[in-house]
Specification:
Elements (H helix, E strand, L loop, with lengths): L1 E7 L2 E6 L11 E10 L3 H6 L15 E8 L11 E3 L3 E2 L5 H4 L19 E2 L16 E4 L7 E2 L15 H12 L6 E5 L3 H12 L4 E6 L2 H9 L3 E4 H4 L3 H7 L8 E4 L9 H9 L5 H11 L5 H9 L5 E4 L12 H6 L3 E4 L4 H8 L17 E4 L3 H9 L8 E4 L1
Parallel strand pairs: 10-11, 10-13, 11-12, 13-14, 14-15, 16-17
Antiparallel strand pairs: 1-2, 3-4, 3-8, 3-17, 4-5, 5-9, 6-7
Helix pairs in contact: 3-4, 3-12
Length: 394
């Protein structure tokens, strides 16, 4: 089969690799019909090389058609249409029962002290072959895949793999009161969808903040009040407070994470790891890594006293400094974590099966073949051609 594989920093290629096969009795093999390019994939493209091997298959946002099932699979059959959550979760352990599939005790990567395994996402998360490929082996076939109806295009359902549950959890964790206010930092796929979901769920004021004109315009078309970082400059806090009664918003969602435009020192430290042998680089990143924290610092500054910060953007540093004095003084609540995909499916799926209140049908900006994936990674990283959400057709 053809699959998108990692070969080095900013070097991804579409290679011919062996087809996956049934290994365990509850495995299923899925023919991937659509698979997404996520902002988290850019972390692999840029800074997480020490935790990857050449040939690793990337991607964690697939959907497709079941081709083969193991002998113990009773809930699916060949021909069923399914979305695959990016968490590799068993569905039956203590953590899964708590709705914390991203902490699944069956697939936790104890060697690295991390949570549930993830499709296509480094040794830190199990080194499980990913979904930017023509076929995918999916374990826990009775509990992990999400069966979706035939009929509507893949665009209607593919975001159940990541974008929709990640954004839904971001809004849930933000705890915006009815009619309250929320600012969303970063209007990439997760931030854009978080703003849409917050408005749908009854927030009175939704403010989207970014510096990419195309992303700001997309949000404006959905009725989101937008602020351009390039225009606001050092006056962003004043501009947000002017829109929120002088106090700041009830909640801030940080949908940027370590892709933030921020500290040159942190950027240089991240870049230095590429000059070290993998064993040293991985140890440095796990024990002393730092992030570019400008987005998180901005969230702490913007949110009103007694408010909530919800972090959906991925951070990877082990030694990030936080302004705890300010956070304590402002009496802030902070929630974060990988999305628990299966936890939110029952809330989201009804919004996808009739009308389209969240605008998923035209959410993608680019639909490309898998063979175009290397160019798409570069385009998405450099924010060229209005790229917000890219879908591949293997």
């Amino acid at each position: 089969m053809r699959a998108l594989t990692w070969h080095g920093k900013r070097d991804v290629r579409v290679d011919t690799v062996p087809d996956p096969a049934i290994r365990d009795a509850d495995d299923v093999i899925v023919q991937v019909t659509t698979t997404g390019l996520c902002g988290s994939d850019l972390h692999l493209y840029e800074v997480l090389g020490p935790f990857l091997d050449p040939g690793d298959i990337l991607g964690h946002e697939p959907m497709g058609i079941v081709q083969e099932v193991g002998p113990d699979v009773t809930t699916l059959k060949p021909g069923d249409r399914v979305v695959i959550p990016f968490n590799v979760s068993c569905g039956t352990c203590f953590m899964c029962d708590q709705g914390l599939q991203s902490q699944c005790e069956t697939t936790q990567v104890r060697e690295h002290g991390t949570g549930a395994s993830l499709f296509g996402y480094t040794k830190l998360y199990g080194q499980v072959p990913g979904g930017q490929a023509q076929y995918l082996r999916v374990p826990f076939g009775n509990t992990l895949p999400i069966r979706v109806p035939q009929g509507p295009s893949d665009d209607r359902f593919v975001y159940l793999s990541d974008v929709l549950p990640t954004a839904w959890q971001a809004v849930e964790y933000a705890a915006v009161p009815p009619g309250g206010s929320v600012a969303v930092l970063g209007l990439g796929p997760i931030g854009d969808m978080s703003a849409r979901i917050a408005a749908h769920r009854g927030a009175g004021t939704v403010i989207g903040i970014d510096l990419v004109p195309e992303r700001l315009e997309r949000a404006r078309r959905r009725g989101i009040h937008t602020l351009d970082l390039q225009e606001c400059g050092d006056h962003l806090t004043d501009a947000v407070r002017d829109l929120t009664g002088g106090r700041g918003p009830d909640a801030v969602i940080d949908a940027v994470g370590m892709e933030a435009h921020g500290s040159r020192v942190a950027a240089a430290a991240q870049g230095m790891t590429s000059l070290l042998p993998d064993a040293l680089a991985s140890a440095m990143m796990k024990r002393a890594g730092i992030d570019r924290l400008s987005a998180l610092y901005t969230a702490i500054d913007l949110v009103r006293r007694g408010g909530t910060i919800s972090v959906s953007g991925v951070y990877g540093g082990a030694a990030d400094p936080l302004p705890l004095l300010t956070m304590f003084d402002k009496q802030l609540q902070l929630r974060m974590g990988q999305a628990n995909v299966r936890r939110w499916v029952d809330d989201i799926l009804p919004l996808l099966t009739d009308e389209d209140p969240l605008g998923v049908d035209d959410f993608a900006t680019h639909r490309l073949t898998l063979e175009q994936a290397p160019d798409a990674y570069e385009m998405f990283q450099k924010k060229r051609d209005g790229a917000v959400k890219v879908l591949f057709t293997p």
